[in-house]
Every structure is written in C-alpha cells, then in structure tokens.
Amino acid sequence: MNRKAKIFAAVVICVLGLIGWWYYESARWENVPTNRFISKIKTDGIRVRIRVPNEGSLFHLVDMSFFNGLETGYSFDDAVRIYGRPDNVTEINGKSALEYWYKNGRVQVVREESSTAVTWSLDAYPNGLDYRKLLNEEISRRVNTKNDESIIVFDTDKGDLLMVIIIKGNRVDYLSWLYLTWKSRKS
Predict the structure, then answer these.
(1) How far is CA 95 from CA 7, 78, 110, 172, 187, in A?
(2) pLDDT tens digits for range 29-77
(3) Any bridge partners for residue 110, and if so which?
(4) Pick from 68, 41, 28, 70: which is nearest to 136 by CA?
(5) Please, which residues have CB within 8 angstroms of residue 137's CB and are 6 or more apart in sequence?
(6) How many angstroms separate the CA atoms of 161 and 185, rounded?
(7) For residues 81 and 63, what is the distance between their CA atoms, to the nearest angstrom?
C-alpha cells in the first residue's frame, strides 16, 4: 500500500470514529419532562448518565444524608473545625484525605493536587447501601441489576462532572461528589 493510500485509510478511519462518537453522544439522550431536576438522561446498559441544570439538582436526585452533613468545598481546616478530628488521615497517589467513619460507611474529604490545579471532593464507601434508597426513582429504574457493576454519572448542562456512583449488584460500592462552587463557611 502506498503512502497516499495509507493516509486516505487513516482519514477514513478517523472520520468513521468521529461519526460513531457523535452518534453515541447525541442519539441516546432522552428528555425527562416529568422531572425538572433532570435535563437529559441516557443509558447504555452499564452506565446511566444524567445531565442536571445545576449542582443543587443533586439534592433532589440523590439522598445526600449518607454524607452525614459533609459537603463539597470544605477544606481540611473547615472539616476539622465543623466535624471534629477525623478517624483516619490517608495519603495515596498524590491524594490526601481525612476519613470520617460512621455506622453506615466512611466518608473522605479528599484533596488532590496536580501541576495545574487543586481539587476537592467527597468520596464515600457505604456499608451495604441499596442503590434504590440512594437514588431518585427515575434514575433507579434505569440501573441494570443484571450487570456485575453499573456506573451512574451526574454532570451539569455545561459538562461539569458532579458525581460518580459505582453500584455492584444492587449495592452502592463507591460515591465521589466533586465540588463546583465553594460553600459558605458554616458555624
């Protein structure tokens, strides 16, 4: 095969890949007119992806009581001042975390530093929490329980990632809630 033919083949493969990606990203979104907190939703069998108008919509779609009052945007100092000393402090792969252990699982206030930014999140590891108790019914009914693992992804209409939830069977294995805006300090 000569050089022109190889370049042509590479261009065709790239174009077909872009068309496939565009089809996947655009064709499967579904509007949910009965729920004002969901802009669009799509399911691919393993993943349920939810677009929400704003960060506040999460509180209507996910039972946030699991976080035991912790919210995103708290620094380590804020967390210690408000919730007391952590039960554990960890540092793994450039991430530092304060762990708070509760009877329903553990919650970590996580700080991750890269060369370009510092990000904060809350990571949670529930003890046997059924996903149907955590998620709004509109979302719960879209989880495919036949999968070994399902992934729920929340992002805003602007494309900002808000939360990722990993479900194994019908139990929530992991939640990660990323901050978009700093919360006001609480006393």
Answers:
(1) 43, 18, 7, 22, 27
(2) 888 888 889 999 998 888 999 999 988 888 899 998 888 777 777 778 8
(3) 97, 121
(4) 41
(5) none
(6) 23
(7) 24
Task: Answer for the pair 56, 152: CB distance below 8 angstroms, yes or no.
Answer: no
Of 67, 14, 61, the closest CA to residue 176 belongs to: 67
Q: d(Cα 96, Cα 110) in Å, to the nearest integer?
A: 6
What single-letter DSSP state applies at residue 33?
Answer: T
* Terminal-residue alpha carbon distance, the chain: 71
pLDDT at 70: 78
pTM for the predicted model, two decimal places: 0.77
Contact call for residues 163 and 154 (beta carbons, < 8 A): yes
Best CA proximity match to 163, nearest among 136, 137, 130: 136
Summarised one tens digit per residue, pLDDT across range 70-99 is 777 777 888 888 889 999 999 877 788 999
Structure token pair of residue 139: 């979302």
Distance CA 144, CA 48 (A): 9
